[in-house]
Structures are given as structure tokens and as C-alpha cells.
């Protein structure tokens, strides 16, 4: 696993384009906005960008419902803007990873319009249809549908179509070789433009058992087990690898890694010729109700995944993305007292684990959850449809809103906070989603000026990661495993060794890594004063959320 690859050494910055920077005053971020901020992104030290979907879309799910895979969404600009953006990124040695959303298309895609028009249309088999004269199809649960029903009746041809996500996101039929060829052609189209990789959206769901077996009661609580890793998934991936990845220099990362370590392994074992790496969600599943989590569990999960991939395969390391609340609110502490230190501590974790770090835009400022209290403020269809569902069922709306304030995806999607001027400098118009009112103090301009800011700390840790192969490839070893407050580990490579100590608590905590700690070089510290030694040279007293990296 020490074979050097750019995508292992990369530090990937995720941009949510809708919320990054609006250049034309319509309240929505766009490609020209991104171009105008490339110097900022370069100054962070990151080496690649993963961009959420920018293709033509009616935006039922903010671009995850694509109506034309070879065009740019009107809100975001033009293909010329794209070409310029890519050129400007490459000029700065920043690679571009695009989202590939092919489990489903938009219902406004030409394929679907054809497909739904008649039962013998040549595009009929591009999607999954169930003739209504055969009765109701086997129930399937939908992530986003108001009724949670993934089968939508369509009167035109008296049939149901399948949509795991919203009813405007019909699932493509991967059993159809023509569909797969279409996808490979789309991939080649973007590769020929010069992009460097794909993040494969919901890809673990593409292969379905089209005998539609019934699932046991409550299966939707364990959806990846039932929807993930369908019978033909690996066959399709091998075919895609043959047709596309083996012929071009392009990296691929799967969103989702199945439900077992073996599933994940099978996706990214390089001898199997499928994908390069995968995002697993076990860490993200912690605190998914906003009520807290156990550090001991987190340590176990990171350690388990690291050991499973120590010899072969590669994973992504991340604590946030556009489908989650803000990193500092979910895993740290967004109170005024601890927001900065806990953000920095979490950043240190991401940048010192083995695996490619993916860092979500705005987290370098310590952006926090907006915590809306009214349904009117939300834009995410996931929140809105679940709310409607509850209204229909006369459920507990107040309780639901309280939960969403901590967990909704919109928490992670509020506009990027550039400066203290109106709308945080994101746009001259009213933004599509409210700006977090904390922008007066939490913004890029203010933080650039403050040497102790979260932003400047982020740059420092990124620089260390970039210049330290041990932090990329080095062997990971958990120390002081039973310590409920402190996460301690070493990374070791070619005779170089680093010790990382992270306090996850709001109080002082004692780290006991079991190493002699004299004469070590302190490389990173999120406090100004060096940490205090304990009673002997084997322990260190860490302040609340303190993070330190030593070179041993
Ligand atoms: O999300 C797919 C999705 O359902 C996962 O986040 C899922 O929760 C996880 O794999 C379970 O472990 C992707 C996009 O990231 C999201 O923004 C889209 O809404 C969705 O696909 C539909 O395209």
C-alpha cells in the first residue's frame, strides 16, 4: 500500500457550488464565482477540488437530478466558464474531481421523457418500469419521497417507475448495456475535457435484483444492506474499469462502501481493477441524531478501518460533506468558547489519519450549524418532504424541527462566509439559503488577518500533511485505547514517527500514550502555550480540545 499515487497524497477540498460564491448577483453560487476564488483555494494548500454536480438540472435535489450530462446548469454558467475554470485550476496545480450521478437521472432528462412516453419506446428500458396490470410492485422505500414510496405510478403508460431518491430522480436501469455505454461515454466526454477524477454518487445502489424480492420488515433502517452492493455491481465496475479507467488517467472514489469491510475491500482492492477508494459512512453515522457520541466508538471505527486497509486498498477520511451538518457542530463544540479549538482539533484528526483527506468548504473557517427553527427557512427536499410526511401522519412536528436544527443537510449548505459585508460577501442578492448570522465574526477576510484563526491553523496543518509522507503512508497505531477523552496515535514511515494527541473533551484531560515524551519536536499545537507534562515523562495534560502533533 505504499505505492505512491497522487490521489493518496492529495488533500481534497469539497466545493458546494450553489453556496460558494455568486458572481452575477442572482443569489446562487456559480462557476465564475469559483474562478474568482481559486487564489484563495490555492492559498489553503489543498491539491484537488471535488465539485458537487454542476450539470443541467431542474434542481429538485440541487443538481443531483441531472437533465443533461454534457451541459452546465444555467444557474452556474456556461461550458466556456467550465473550460476556463478547469484551466485556471490546473494552472494552480489543483486537480478537479467531478460528481458522477448515474444511479438516477432527472425525470426531465430526454431519456426519461422518451422512456415514459410509451411502452415500446427505445428508451423504455433505460429505467425500471412495473406494469400496473400486474398489481402493485414489491414495496421499495424512498429516501426523499413524501410517502417514502419508491414506486411512482405514471398514468401515461399505466406503469410504476422506481426512484430510490425523489420522484424526480428515476433510477437508471443498469441491467441495460446501452445505459452503461451511455455512462462510459459521459465519463469520456469529461475526461477528454481534462478532469482528473469522479466521485461516484450513490454508486453502491446501481445494481438491483430485478426479480424484486420482498425485504423483511424494518429493512429501511438498514438500507445500505438491502440496496447496496447489488448482484451485478462488481461486474459493472469491472466493465467500467475496462472501458474507461484502464484507458485514461483518472481517479475514482465511490460514495458508500457497502455494509461490510469485505464489501469495501472488494471495491478498492487494486488487484480487482474496480475503483481507487471509497467513502465509508461509519464515522458519519456517529451522532446522527445530534445527541452526542462516544469517542471510544469513534476510535474503534477509525482503527478498524485503518487495519482493514493497512495492506491493500484505500479509503477517504472526512468528517463532513454536503449531506451532513457542520463538522464543528456535529463532532466538536460550536459554543463561542470552544468553536475555534474544537474545529482545529478535528482538522488535525482529518489531516493526520491514513487515507485521503476530504475537507468540506467553510470548515476551514469553523462555520457552524445555522439551526433553523422554522420549516420555511429550509430548502432541502429531504427535510421538506419528511416534514410533509409527518404533517400527513399528524406526527410530532416540533420534535422533528428540533432534530433537523441539529441534523439537516441545510446546516452544511448555508452560503460561504467571505467577509463581514452584506450576505457575508457571498452575493449582492438575497441568497438562495439564509446566511448564518455569525458571519460578522466568522468569515475568511477576518480570519486571514488573525494569526490564531482556524483558517491559518488549517493552512499550517495542510502544509505539514503535504510535506510529510509519514502522514500519508505511515503505519497507524492507536495508543491509550481505553482513554475515553483523548485520541492518541502514531504514524510511522521510513524511520520517521509522529505522535498525535487529541482531546475531545471540554475539560483538561490526561494523555498517556505510553511513550517517553521528552525532547520531542512539537510540530502542531492548537493552543499558544505548549502542553504541560504530567507527573512523569509519560503523560501530558491537554487543555480542552487541545490537539498536538509531535515528531518523535
Ligand atoms: O447521497 C446518497 C445517499 O443516500 C447517501 O448519502 C447515503 O445516505 C449513504 O450512502 C448511506 O450510508 C447522494 C448525494 O450525496 C446526495 O446529496 C443526493 O441527494 C443523493 O445522492 C441523491 O443523488
UniProtKB/TrEMBL annotation:
Organism: Mucilaginibacter gracilis
Protein name (Swiss-Prot/TrEMBL): Oligo-1,6-glucosidase
Family to which the UniProt record says this protein belongs: Belongs to the glycosyl hydrolase 13 family.
Domain annotation Glycosyl hydrolase family 13 catalytic: ranges: 14-413
Pfam families, per the entry: Alpha-amylase
Domain of life of the native organism: Bacteria
Claim: Hydrolase is one of the keywords in the record: yes
Keywords from the UniProt entry: Glycosidase, Hydrolase
